[in-house]
Specification:
Elements (H helix, E strand, L loop, with lengths): L4 H12 L2 H17 L7 H25 L19 H8 L1 H7 L3 H12 L4 H8 L3 H19 L10
Length: about 160
């Protein structure tokens, strides 16, 4: 749990955009890991398995959500105020880079996360996501170009030249 909880939460959040749902996915993955009877070949195999299970559970959740009945926003009562965030959480939530990454299409968002945040090479990302290495390379290229355009501003803080 200590080794993978943060990774599972981050991967799940990139899919679901909802922290509570990401926490639920984290619990499910950890329960599946505990129930896993076959030993893992290596730590890398275990890590890839955990991420793959998290991704599959997220996809299942998104499919279930898509099949649910939709309710108009004005028909929903006003939600209670969110609990106070720590300074780090508030800063992270307001980060331009995080916002730009989260606004990307899911395939680019996952490729960026696994490559830059988790440090996976393209071959490993290909194995985890089931896409070809060429597709992963193209997703990363397009994602970098999109980030370059999105984050380029008057202050040029994010100069990607």
């Amino acid at each position: 749990m200590e080794s993978y909880a943060d990774t599972i939460l981050r991967v799940s959040y990139t899919y679901l955009h909802n922290y509570a749902d990401a926490e639920d996915i984290c619990q499910e993955v950890l329960l599946k890991a505990l129930a896993q009877e076959q030993p893992f070949r290596s730590e890398d195999h275990e890590r890839a398995w955990v991420i793959r299970v998290a991704i599959n559970l997220c996809k299942d959740q998104l499919r279930r959500a898509a099949s649910r009945q939709q309710v108009a926003l004005e028909d929903v009562p006003e939600p209670a105020a969110q609990p106070a965030q720590t300074e780090d959480e508030a800063h992270a939530a307001q980060s331009r880079v995080l916002d730009a990454v989260m606004a990307m299409p899911q395939d680019m968002r996952i490729a960026i996360y696994l490559h830059y945040y988790e440090g996976y090479p393209m071959r490993a990302i290909s194995a985890i996501t089931g896409a070809s290495e060429a597709a992963i390379a193209k997703r990363l290229s397009r994602a970098r170009a999109q980030l370059r355009e999105t984050l380029k501003g008057d202050d040029d803080v994010f100069d990607f030249a």
